[in-house]
Automatic annotation (TrEMBL):
Gene3D superfamilies: Glutaredoxin. Pfam families: Thioredoxin. The keyword Ribosomal protein does not apply. The lineage of its organism: Bacteria, Bacillati, Bacillota, Bacilli, Bacillales. Keywords: Disulfide bond, Electron transport, Redox-active center, Transport. It comes from Neobacillus cucumis. This is Thioredoxin.
């Protein structure tokens, strides 16, 4: 399951373990294409790696804080710290290879 994050829930969600967060918006076609891929990954990873998304149109403070300049942008957090970033649309294997580097 992909968790939808807001400003007040963000830090608590990413503070422990490995988390992949997609910054996007419903108006973004590549973001809509990316969503089923992220759902598949969330199901595969279960609770080992958390998958979340942030709607940058609603959560502008988070978009500014994490310097989101284009969507979709994915950030990989390990215990609350950014360890990698992906910008644009990526297939499942590309995302898995980025996560594999961190594990």
């Amino acid at each position: 399951m992909i968790q939808e994050l807001e400003f007040h829930t963000f830090d608590k969600f990413i503070e422990k373990g490995l988390t992949l967060v997609e910054f996007g918006a419903p108006r973004c076609a590549p973001c809509r294409i990316q969503e089923p891929i992220l759902k598949e990954l969330a199901e595969e990873w279960g609770t080992n790696i958390l998958v979340a998304k942030v709607d940058v149109d609603k959560e502008t403070d988070l978009a500014v804080k994490y310097r989101i300049q284009g969507i979709p942008t994915m950030k990989v957090f390990n215990n609350g710290k950014i360890v990698d970033s992906l910008r644009g649309l990526h297939d499942k294997e590309e995302i898995k290879s980025i996560i594999a580097k961190v594990i």
